[in-house]
Amino acid sequence: MPAISVKTFAGERPKLDPRLLPNQYAVVANNCHFDNGNLSPIKKNSEQVVGVSANARTIFKYLNEYWFSWGGKVNAVSSPIADDPWQRVYFTGDGYPKVTNNAIFSGSNMPANAYRLGIQSPEVTITAQVTEAEIEETDDIDPNDDETRYYTHTYVTEQGEEGPPGEASQRLDIKYPDEDGTYVTLALSPPNVNASNITHRRIYRTATGGGIADYLFVAEIPIAQGQFIDDIPTDELGSSLETYDYEMPNENMIGLTSMANGILAGFFDSTVCFSEAYLPYAWPSGYQLTTEHEIVTVAALGNTLAVLTKGYPYLFSGISPDAMAGQKLESNQSCVSDRSATIVNGSLIYASPDGLIGLNSSGLTMLTNQIITRDQWQLLDPSTIEAYHQDGKYIAFYGENLDKGFIFDPSSGDFRHFEDDYDCAYNSLLDDELYICTKGELFKWNGGDEFRGYEWRSKDFEANDLSFACAMVKGVDLQLCGLRIFADDTQVTNLDIGSIPDSAFRLPSTRGDSWSFEIYGSGTIHSVTIATTMREVVA
Fold first, then answer.
1. How far apart, in whole angstroms, are the C-alpha atoms of residue 229 and residue 370?
2. Cβ atoms 425, 445 nearer than 8 A
3. In three state form, how does the secondary structure of 443-500 look?
4. Cα angle 260, 265, 269; round to 5
5. CA distance 535 to 212
């Protein structure tokens, strides 16, 4: 009779009956890994790194030194502008969309301060009054030199961000527009609300009759200045107004993410929003696109935005925000948890009602259909899943208290469980660490010096009423491991941690049709062999 011999180890395949599993797969695999084919423990979390707000549900590392935290689900991204002198961070989910920077973030609970993202158009129209030069009308005066003029203005932040213009002023008919002594007095009102750090105002005017020409720059003045005298000749005007459609983002926009080419994206209800490239404060409504179902979350895949909904998923692609085109994927794999979506090895993985889905620019793939059934998947409460990526693997926390977890390797299909306390986490690309937050305390996940205790139970090996008489376990630090052996689900041997011999050992005389074993502890296991004779064990 061939011996039971397991020389490589892998995770769970709950979809298969335990007797049908390949030898290396487990019925139970907790707190372990198989990166080199052996059965090894995963590490405990590191010592506490830093503390944040005790009720934190989102954390974000700023300037590789400071930690932001929020009490709800927030999406934060760094400025897409290279060498941004303000080192801005944009975020949604904490009321209306906001931005903070290196001048205002610091405080006891960071970010201590933030401004509303975007700049509103001026609410009050400029009032203008013409004062004409005193010129004696002669045959030298050309009546065609008369000018019809309109004024408008925009608000500007301390960072130089310029919003859309207000309504045009009343029409002004000026007989001697460029003569000394002709000027226009402008009366200006302050913003009704200043939540965006507006510090200046830019004034523009038309330069030709009919009011159809572009507005040209006149002057920039402090926002507190209530009057301006415009006596600037036409040939000294500046560049054209370019911010006509630089609208504020919708106040309900969430899910902020950063795409390629400096474009930010977000959503509200079933509407996808895109910013101007490298202008994260400008969100033209003309760039908005819609989906058939309510959006759950979005994620950037280069020039493509994956949009996950309560129905069909979508892909929106384009190199510029005004050229985005949407593609509905004819799949009924909706997203059941916004935080289940994370990018692993270039693909977006998320939780659907049936299992984990992989999505990239090539389309959609069901990743776990050969691993777990829909009914088994539902026992994991997929609507609670919050996931991150680490070392090419999908790290998921789930459950009512988010105190359970599983690890899925999309490359090998490996699936295993772990236990941990969790409130939220953050993937740091700079140091390639996953930071876990629990009750305001931050740790590096799997970053400690000690190991967790694992449990790995084998498949059921059919034996046809055989009596296995001996066994042998090979590995490193066997004194840190324990072993249980079962015949027909009845325990026949229990070697507590520290009791596994370094050589082959005898088993009690027991017969059974089905045999299995369980290894637990924190040592590394190379192989487990169970046989009818010593010769088979040591062969």
1. 75
2. yes
3. EECCCCCCECCEEEEECCEEEEEECCCEEEEEEECHHHEEEEEEECCEEEEEECCCCC
4. 155
5. 98
Statement: residue 302 has pLDDT above 90: no
Q: Are 392 and 434 in contact (CB under 8 A)?
A: no
**Reduced DSSP (H G I as helix, E B as strand, rest coil) percent helix, strand, coil of the chain, to 5:** 5, 45, 50
Instruction: For residue 63, give both structure tokens.
Output: 């300037």
Place of tokens 């819609």: 290
The structure tokens listed for 308 are 């996950």
Asked if the model's pLDDT at residue 379 lies above 70, the reply is yes
Q: What angle do CA 181, 186, 192 make, to 5 degrees?
A: 170
Separation CA 246–CA 118 (nearest Å): 8
* Torsional sign, CA 455, 459, 462, 468: negative
Write the pLDDT tens digit of every residue in 162-175: 999 999 999 998 88
pLDDT class of 1 with cuts at 50, 70, 90: low
Alpha carbon distance 517, 483 (integer Å): 7
Give the integer Cα–Cα distance in Å for 478 and 28.
Answer: 20
Residue that the structure tokens 């993985």 belong to? 349
SS3 for 152-197 is EEEEEECCCCECCCCCCCCCEEECCCCCCCCEEEEECCCCCCCCCC
Least confident of 173-182, 296-305, 463-472: 173-182
In this structure, how many other beta carbons lie within 10 angstroms of the beta carbon of residue 7? 14
Q: How far apart are CA 379 and CA 280, in angstroms?
A: 41
**In whole angstroms, what is the distance from residue 103 CA to residue 48 CA?**
28
Q: What residue type is assigned to position 156 of the chain?
A: V
The amino acid that residue 311 corresponds to is G
* Residue 58 confidence (pLDDT) above 80: yes
